[in-house]
Write a structure and sequence with these properties.
Length: about 625
């Protein structure tokens, strides 16, 4: 009932349209109740007296009334469809707006297919309820009780006896409603899982083909498809066992009325006109009851779909601008301080809070690239970053190194508040990032992510995504800095070339350079490069670093990298190990410490040597570099 009442609340803004629908519906129902009486008069007065003009008069009234009802039905149908579409339009818009505001942590565990299923199939089901089901339920109730009232006025004995089967029909309807609700819940859930499997397969089709696992993925999809088929057949069995029974009881009501009516006509206690009218009225009883089964079906679909939509809408937006709008980021210099920073990914909380799936759904449990590894710990709550203290001056370039799961990507993601600190704080120009206006803060931070994403749009649109108003000259300047301009000119339509979904028309290195140009165009005081040159060749990397040297000038730059060639422009190097700062200093200082940095440097240097010049691995040197003891 709580879900039903919440659904009804979405209709409040359209109360005028609903009032018009009710008025039109009442006019149509009034004619439906009057029409059998007009037929009765045509029979009892016109036919009995052989008065053709009387018959014609009542037939004209019936015809005029039918024309009136046709007009009201058209207007009613259009209005109720408009209300339903408007409700769903606003609901879908609110859902999408809410999704845009949800934090990274929500999408770390949410399944894209489930979200798409709720945005499309579930909301469409709710639309069917608002645009058709709800009004038909109200119409059925009015018609049912109105018909009973008129029939009782004509002949209460025939009416009451004809309705003896009605309780059985209502019982069948009640049982149907009780069974079909959970069945539709299972159908909606299985459809969400099926959509998730489909979306995941399409997104990862290149990996599937690369490993020749088409049959494996086909098996996964077939399994989901079979589950979806089974739940729908379970629902179909409930409907198949209920609707014919409802129709049978409705037929019994009609037969009772024919038998009793004929009996009373023969006895002279009912006129032939009344008997004829009763045959029309009886459908005013049977139709609403039979239609109730279908309406319950539609209502149950909506009631089972609505919580899946509300679950997203009710998810807290725990990363947002302060209530007062937050501090403006104009004039930001880029001095960044990590003060006693600790970030903890609470596994249990993330599973329970705002999940995109119900209890039976599968979830993707991660908290970014770094959290995925850290979460594998046995404890329910795992610290990814611990007691980080670091101050970066405006214009300084800081490189962040570390092994897998060391926390380096999580650290830089927190600068733009993709995640908030569990303890401690991150300050920019002395202001806690949580006190800034969130949108302005992120516009001041240019990010080149490790996993490059391009939209299915032109190259120009992708580069100008952060600054749609940028001129072509500005876009070209950013592309030149990212060493992608010359390549773009070779494309069929230059900067107006559409790259395809996820940038499929470009290579990995080209996509990464477009993403780099996108960040450069923002002209931010803080630049974050997360493995920004990992997908380019050595020559292109060298050219990009040369261009970046001028781009980075005057900007606070964070460079996350595994290849040491990517950090040659850094003023300082930070080495993370297990969420803590293990080493920091210049290239020279860290090399002299004989720690992780020196081992990584030597390993990469030796990897580039010709085989005949590499150290003898038998003496254990390479084993030591890898952390072994040489044995």
């Amino acid at each position: 009932m709580k879900v039903f009442m919440r659904l009804l609340s979405y209709m409040k803004p359209y109360w005028r349209s609903i009032a018009l629908i009710m008025l039109l519906m009442s006019a149509g129902t009034a004619f439906d109740l009057l029409a059998p009486w007009l037929l009765k008069q045509a029979v009892d007065v016109g036919m009995a007296n052989k008065a053709m003009h009387t018959i014609i008069f009542y037939c004209l009234l019936l015809g005029g009334g039918q024309l009136m009802k046709t007009g009201t039905n058209y207007l009613q149908g259009y209005t109720q469809e408009r209300v339903g579409q408007s409700v769903v339009y606003n609901m879908r818009r609110n859902l999408y707006d809410h999704l845009q505001k949800l934090p990274y942590s929500y999408f770390d565990k949410a399944q894209t297919g489930q979200i798409m299923s709720r945005m499309t199939g579930d909301i469409e089901t709710i639309k069917n309820f608002f645009a058709f089901g709800l009004i038909q339920i109200v119409l059925g109730v009015i018609t049912f009780f109105g018909t009973i009232g008129v029939m009782l006025a004509f002949n209460w004995k025939v009416t009451l006896i004809s309705m003896l089967v009605t309780p059985l029909l209502m019982l069948a309807i009640a049982k149907f409603g009780k069974k079909v609700g959970p069945a539709w819940g299972d159908v909606r859930e299985q459809m969400g899982k099926l959509t998730s499997t489909l979306q995941e397969n399409i997104s990862g089709i290149r990996v599937v083909k690369a490993f020749a696992q088409e049959n494996l993925e086909k098996g996964k999809f077939d399994g989901r498809n079979e589950d979806n088929f089974a739940t729908n057949m379970k629902r179909a069995r409930i409907e198949a066992g209920s609707f014919p029974l409802m129709g049978f009881y409705g037929g019994l009501i009609f037969l009772l009325m024919i038998w009793l009516g004929s009996y009373y006509v023969v006895k002279g206690e009912m006129t032939l006109g009344t008997f004829t009218a009763f045959q029309w009225y009886i459908w005013g009883l049977v139709w609403p009851l039979n239609m109730t089964g279908w309406m319950i079906n539609i209502a149950q679909q909506a009631i089972k779909a609505a919580p899946r939509v509300f679950e997203i809408l009710d998810t807290d937006i725990n990363i947002a601008s302060p209530a007062n709008g937050g501090q403006h980021a104009d004039g930001m210099k880029g001095r960044v301080e990590f003060r006693n920073l600790t970030f903890r990914y609470d596994k249990q909380a993330d599973q329970n809070e705002g999940s995109a799936d119900t209890a039976n759904s599968e979830t993707i449990e991660s908290a970014g690239a770094e959290a995925t590894t850290a979460e594998s710990a046995e404890t329910a709550s795992q610290e990814i970053l611990r007691d980080i203290n670091l101050e970066v001056q405006p214009g300084e370039a800081v490189a962040i190194l570390g092994g897998t799961g060391s926390g380096k990507s999580t650290l830089i993601q927190m600068i733009a508040r993709f995640y908030d600190a569990t303890e401690g704080a991150i300050l920019i120009d002395g202001v806690d990032v949580r006190d800034y206006n969130l949108e302005e803060l992120r516009r001041k931070i240019g990010i080149v992510p490790q996993e490059t994403f391009l939209f299915s749009a032109t190259i120009r649109d992708n580069i100008a995504f952060g600054r749609p108003e940028a001129s072509l000259e500005q876009v070209e300047w950013a592309a030149k800095q990212a060493q992608i301009h010359d390549f773009i000119l070779t494309m069929p339509n230059g900067y107006e070339t559409i790259v395809g979904e996820r940038g499929v028309g470009l290579s990995g290195g080209q996509r990464q350079r477009v993403a780099l140009a996108r960040a450069i165009l923002m002209d931010p005081p803080i630049l974050v490069l997360d493995e920004a040159t990992a997908s380019v060749d050595t020559a292109t990397e060298s050219a990009i670093h040369e261009a970046l040297h001028s781009v980075m000038e005057g900007r606070t730059t964070f460079i996350v990298a595994q290849r040491l060639s990517s950090i040659q422009t850094a003023d300082r190097i930070i080495v993370l190990d297990n969420g803590k700062i293990a080493e920091q200093g210049t290239h020279k200082e860290l090399y002299e410490q004989d720690g992780f940095f020196r081992k990584l440097f030597n390993m990469q240097q030796w990897a580039d040597m010709p085989d005949q010049d590499k150290p003898n691995t038998q003496n254990g040197q390479l084993a030591v570099l890898r952390g072994g003891d040489g044995r």
